[in-house]
Design brief:
The structure is a single chain. This protein is of the alpha+beta class and about 140 residues long. The chain has 3 helices and 5 strands; from the N terminus they run αβααββββ. A 5-stranded antiparallel sheet has the order 1-5-4-3-2. The radius of gyration is 20 Å and the shape is elongated.
């Protein structure tokens, strides 16, 4: 298989770049990627890795091994999708933009059984927000 055409390799490289950018923004710039961007990129990377594994399975020269690995890939992909759905369902935060004391803020709302928490952060644009907590309800 040609490494330049490997979906798995490109997805892992994109994932490493995503993690590096997130780390640098948070540690050195005091910024964090917005929720919609983090979740979208995570789903894109996970789909790319699943497609890359399938691509690697389809390039196995032995037909019997290819069929066995393909049949094992199907429940593994289904289990990963279910796990990812449950993970996002329980860890998803809602994000809105509001005015707080004359300053535009990003409000992250965390819902739980009998209520919710609102956390206000500095607004820095469409793609990033500040990491400093301004106010919490």
């Amino acid at each position: 298989m040609n490494l330049k055409k490997s979906i798995l390799l490109w997805s892992m490289g994109f994932g490493a770049l995503f993690l590096a950018v997130s780390f640098v923004l948070e540690q050195f710039c005091g910024l964090m990627l917005r929720i919609w961007l983090r979740e979208s990129l995570t789903i894109l990377i996970a789909a790319g890795i699943a497609a890359g594994v399938l691509q690697a399975v389809l390039h196995i020269p032995n037909k019997t091994a290819k069929i066995i690995c393909g049949l094992l890939w199907i429940p593994a992909a289904a289990a990963s999708c279910i796990f990812g759905y449950v993970l996002f369902a329980f860890s998803h935060l809602e994000e809105t933009t509001r005015d707080y004391e004359g300053q535009l803020c990003i409000v992250e709302t965390e819902d739980y059984y009998e209520g919710y928490d609102d956390r206000y952060y500095e607004y820095h644009g469409w793609f990033v927000r500040g990491t400093k907590l301004l106010y919490e309800e």
